[in-house]
From TrEMBL:
PROSITE patterns per record: GH16_1 (PS01034), GH16_2 (PS51762)
Protein name: Xyloglucan endotransglucosylase/hydrolase
Residues at the active site: E97, E101
One GO CC term, this protein: apoplast
A biological process term (GO) from this entry: cell wall biogenesis
Domain of life from the UniProt record: Eukaryota
Key words, A-Z: Apoplast, Cell wall, Cell wall biogenesis/degradation, Disulfide bond, Glycoprotein, Glycosidase, Hydrolase, Secreted, Signal, Transferase
Length: 275
């Protein structure tokens, strides 16, 4: 009888499936009804936007420090006015938040990757980038490594932004400075219409004749970071010349907005964490 072997095989196969990312296990659809769809046995998530609504999901788990990766393929063609998001957020008026937002554009014109960090309800720390590839042709990996010391935003393994915890030095000089480190966050993703501001500051409107707009997600991977893993990753970035050069390359060639350099917005000088 080969039944026991078969059974063993089935058991192994199903535990492997449980261990790998599966949107059925990992997320809840929170708005937009069936505009958010889980496909391919949980391997893929599709977000849709039409004239009446967008949609969104949130992770079942909460994290206080984590390494989160997601692969996304953004709305192709004329995506002007649409915003696709991938972010971490806690609840409440003094919430913390770590944002990746993708601002759509007319066909052939570049998406903007918009990043921000909120701590204790205060944001205003925007940095924006163009991407060095067309994010609509294929899946690319977007990651957040959030530890008690720093937040690293990465695209396809390249760091694009590092936000350090500088509470020890700055807490004394600026009571507004906080670092997100006390509130657990969930992971969110959504697709919605923001044509009042997203594309060229709201000048280009969503073309509803192109609706529904669709973005696809896969390989959602969220791991609570033990302080050991996090320390190892930080040392890796600090000591890895290639990663450092990559970060500089992105910032030099693809960063299009940095709140720290916005002298119109901060005529008296930028916020203290910029120095
Ligand atoms: C859209 O394309 C224009 C022209 O290239 C560019 O100025 C803008 O930054 C692009 N992105 C968005 C989201 O407006």
């Amino acid at each position: 009888m080969d039944t026991p072997l078969h059974l063993l095989f089935l058991l192994l196969a199903s535990s492997a499936a449980l261990a790998s990312a599966n949107f059925y296990n990992d997320v809840d659809i929170t708005w937009g009804n069936d505009r958010a769809k889980i496909l391919d046995n949980g391997q893929q998530l599709q977000l849709t936007l039409d004239r009446s609504s967008g949609c969104g999901i949130q992770s079942k788990q909460e994290y206080l420090f984590a390494k989160i990766d997601i692969q996304m393929k953004l709305v192709p063609g004329n995506s002007a006015g649409t915003v696709t998001t991938f972010y971490l957020s806690s609840q409440g008026p003094k919430h913390d938040e770590i944002d990746f937002e993708f601002l759509g554009n007319l066909s052939g014109d570049p998406y903007i990757l918009h990043t921000n960090v909120f701590a204790q309800g205060l944001g205003g720390r925007e940095q924006q980038f163009y991407l060095w590839f067309d994010p609509t042709l294929d899946f690319h990996t977007y990651s957040v490594l959030w530890t008690s010391n720093q937040i690293i935003f990465s695209v396809d393994g390249s760091p694009v932004r590092v936000f350090k915890n500088r509470e020890t030095e700055l807490g004394k000089v600026d009571s507004n400075y906080h670092y997100p480190k006390t509130q657990a966050m969930r992971v969110y993703s959504s697709l919605w219409n923001a044509d009042d501001w997203a594309t060229r500051g709201g000048l280009v409107k969503t073309d509803w004749t192109k609706a529904p707009f669709v973005a696809s997600l896969r390989n959602f991977n969220a791991a609570a970071t033990s302080s050991f893993d996090a320390a190892a990753e930080e040392v890796a970035l600090e000591s890895n010349q290639e990663q450092k050069q990559r970060l500089q390359w992105v910032r030099k060639n693809y960063m299009i907005y940095d709140y720290c350099a916005d002298t119109k917005r901060f005529p008296q000088g930028p916020p203290p964490e910029c120095k």
